[in-house]
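Why does residue order matter? Because the sequence determines the fold. Keep that principle in mind as you read this record.
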Amino acid sequence: MKALQFWFDPVSPYAYLAFERLPQVLEGLSYTVSYRPVLFAGLLQHWGQLGPAEIPPKRDWTYRQVAWLAHRLDIPLVMPAIHPFNPLALSRLLLAHGQASALPGAANRFACETVLRRVWRSGEAAGEPAQVEALAEALAPGRAQELLAASRDETVKAMLRSNTDQAAAGGLFGVPTVVVEDRAFWGLDGLELLAACLRGDPWFEGPAWEAAAHVPGGSVRRAAPGQP
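Structure:
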């Protein structure tokens, strides 16, 4: 049985689509999944990148592609009222729920499904107090206030920072990324590559995987004056 880590941020529509598609892509395989919330903005900052929504034409393309992918994969999707939104409260809620379920630093699939589907199927203002409170009640009926309080605790905040730091240290640059053993598979389209690896495709046993990353570097773009 292979142990997988699914690194994600609720702000990413690709993470939502990959979460929904993962069981189908890996059908028939023996595996476990640890769902690990991270702060996508923290990864962007670590690598000095802009997010897709920070480049206007790329933002338009991203939303069109996401709408098409959801249509093609037959996965329900309704964009949040505003995007991008602040996902901190949602990720901390997931970690607080995981901590209560003896999964420190991770969340179970039920909790992730509850949060991601509310974000990406409701059309609500995602991450806002009303939604977070409703999700807390859905995750912990009768104990919502206790869960909300735990999600604001410094211990949970530190977990999210630690997850993000761990992901960056491991070379992760985007979400979703699935890690198995020493290999990382980025993006929704990376799931097919992941499945091939787990099914024992001989390509992964030869030199091709490592060799593909060892192309000599050429011209490097210089930062604009005044930029780091």
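Residues 56-73 form the longest helix (18 residues).
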